[in-house]
Amino acid sequence: MAERQVQHLVDTLAERLGRSVVLDDPEVNLLAASRHFGDADDQRVRAVLQRDVGGSAIGHILAQGVARWTRPGVIPARPDLGMVQRLCHPIRWQGQLLGLLLIIDADGSVSEEETEEVVRAGHEIGALLLGEQLGQDDRRREQESAVADLLGVDPGRREAGVRALDRLGTLRHAASVTVTGLELDDRDGALEATESTLALRIATASVARSRAGFAAGAVLGSRGVLLQTWDRAPTPERLRDQATELRDAVGRVLGEQVRTVAGVGRVRPGLDEAHRAYDEALVALRAARRAPGLDGLALADELGPLDVLLRVPESELTLALVPDELRRLQARDPQGRLVETLRAYLDHAGSSPATAEALHLHRTSLYYRLERIEEIAGVDLADGRTRLLLHLGLHVLDLVS
User: Are the beta carbons of 260 and 250 closer than 8 angstroms?
Assistant: First the structure.
């Protein structure tokens, strides 16, 4: 009933204005659309016919800050998206954003009186949306609570989480399970919590919807989580591509000024192992944030020794963990040539031919550098424990530099 009433109000507003009108939810998913009035652009046609606004258009709309708007404003045109200017009215109840009324206004001719008409219609639509929103929020909260329980440490609550997800029909049992974590690296604190949550929710929900019955998206605190079950274990390439898709989805909403990092846990056998996959995803997230060579995306299966080091508490993972021998070498090696040589030597398991080839060095030059390293650092590179200590020290250095 509410859906028909909302559609009627949208149609009535469009007739009064003589303009095309759409109503979107806060995540810019289409809820209702009026008939055309000869002003439809390519973006509107796509949204109505495909019931899909499109990631780029969603990003453009949200990038104007509509999540914070309290009164009507202008969404500028984007010719590259086939999108003309729109008037946008945020529909709110007690500060909560319930929806967005968008009116085609290619030439900026909507008058103040017409804008007031939009606001009045927004009040009526908001009253209807509120009931729907409360029901959706209850379901969302129940799903997010179930995901949190399933990924938590208490076995009893994990079982309750499985039962809740079964009841909601958002996930199904399968041979394998994966967990992907997503975080915003907002070091400048430029984002409001509502913007961050909205971006993470859009990203996880968009991927979850594309695999109905196989995935559940959630926002747990400041972290987006995508929990998935698979009949056939996904390849690392598939998981990497999907994590990239999640990061791109956040980027379309918030723009490129905010760095997004993603971490993927190991493929685990069944939902009983989901909490282990989540723990691994958290370690991978730390790697994605701290390890410069990973470019903000890490798979737990590919971390190697970082998997051990990144389980050290954040407060302990400092320069104090770098061995004295390595710090002495650093202090006497301002250009980093000897440290680079040591890294290559240890990465190649102490093989001089392989190290010389990797560094494009004559073997005599390599032997000279290795002798200098032993002399300055006061170590014996023939000793296995020394090699392990220095190799771990180099990884720590990467993380804390």
Answer: yes
Its pTM stands at: 0.69
The string of pLDDT tens digits covering residues 110-152 is 999 999 999 999 988 887 887 666 556 677 788 889 999 999 9
CA angle 260, 62, 76 (to 5 degrees): 130
Long-range contacts of 371-376 (CB under 8 A, 24+ apart): 372/338, 373/329, 373/338, 373/341, 373/342, 376/328, 376/329, 376/332, 376/333, 376/338
CA distance 115 to 123: 13
Look up residue 122 and give its amino acid: G
Cβ atoms of residues 46 and 52 within 8 Å:
yes
- Rg of the chain over Cα atoms, rounded to whole angstroms, equals 27
Q: Could you give the C-alpha distances from 197 to 46, 95, 183, 194, 325, in angstroms and in order?
A: 27, 16, 10, 5, 45
Whole-number Å distance between alpha carbons of 333 and 341: 11
Q: Provide CB contacts within 8 A for 295, sequence distance 6+.
A: none
End-to-end CA distance of the chain: 60
